[in-house]
Each structure stands twice: as structure tokens, then as C-alpha cells.
Amino acid sequence: MSKDNNSGKGFLIGFLAGGAIGAILALLYAPKSGKELRSDIKLKTDGILDDADKYLAEAKDKAKDLINEGKKKSEKLISEAKTKSEELLKDAEKVFGDAKAKANTVISAGKETITAESDRLKTALKAGVDAYKNTKES
Q: Is the dihedral of CA 117, 119, 122, 123 positive or negative?
């Protein structure tokens, strides 16, 4: 067990030593000084921020265009709906007028039939009363 513990410690010490040596070598052989490297990083960061601003402005423009297009389409749909509803209303008024005219025709015909039947019934009733009177007198 102590052998496993020693090899783990050795690996850790080797890893840390290798990292430190690698960092020292990187600093010794770096092509630029820290000041130049920071300046390059700042320029790259500024460039990325400018690109992000451009993309954001383009996205805003596209969003405005989409919103305006949506408004135009919705206004067109509303206009078409109004036109269709007005047409439906006119058609409904025409159907109602036709139905009213037919109902008046049927009512007039019914009144005439009732009047004719009423007259016929009165005539029959009068004839029955007259016949009864005649039979009673005779």
C-alpha cells in the first residue's frame, strides 16, 4: 500500500514540476512581451465587441422588418375579414328579405284561404239554419 502511495506522490510531484518548467519555458521563448500580448488581447477583444455590436444592430433591423411585415399582414387580414363580414351581412339581409317576402306571400295565401273557407262555412251554416227553419215550419 505504501508503494501505491509513493507512486501517487511521485506522479503529483512530477506533474507539478513539469507544469512549472513548461510555464517557465513558455515565458522564456514567448515571441512577445507581456505588454504587447495584453495589447493584442485588447485589440482582439475590441474587434469582437465591434462585431457583436454589428450583429446586434443587424438583428434589431431584421426584428423591426419582421414586426413591420407582421403588422402589414395583420392589417391586410383584418381588412379582408371586414370585407368578407360585410359581404356575409349583405347576403344575410338578402336571405332575410327573401324569406320575409315568401312568408308574406304564404300569409296572404293563408288569409285568402281562411277567408274563402270562412265564407263557405258561413254560407253552409246559413243554409243549415234556413233548412232547419224550413223543416220546423213545415
A: negative
CA distance 86 to 88: 5
For the chain, the farthest-separated pair of C-alpha atoms sits apart, in whole angstroms, at 156
φ and ψ at residue 30, rounded to 5 degrees: -65, 135
Q: Which long-range contacts (CB under 8 A, 24 or more apart) does 58-66 make?
A: none
Given the C-alpha cell 465587441, which residue does it identify? 49
Contact between residue 30 and residue 37 where contact means Cβ atoms under 8 Å apart: yes
Q: What is the pLDDT of residues 25-65, one digit of tens each?
A: 776 676 767 677 677 767 878 888 888 888 889 999 999 99
What is the distance between the terminal CA atoms of the chain, rounded to a whole angstrom? 151
Dist. CA 44–CA 42, nearest whole Å:
5
Residues 6+ apart with CB under 8 A from 40: 32
The predicted-structure confidence for 12-22, as pLDDT tens digits, reads as follows: 788 888 877 88
Q: Rg of the chain's alpha carbons, rounded to an integer?
A: 52
* pLDDT score at 89: 95
Contact 40, 32 (CB under 8 A): yes
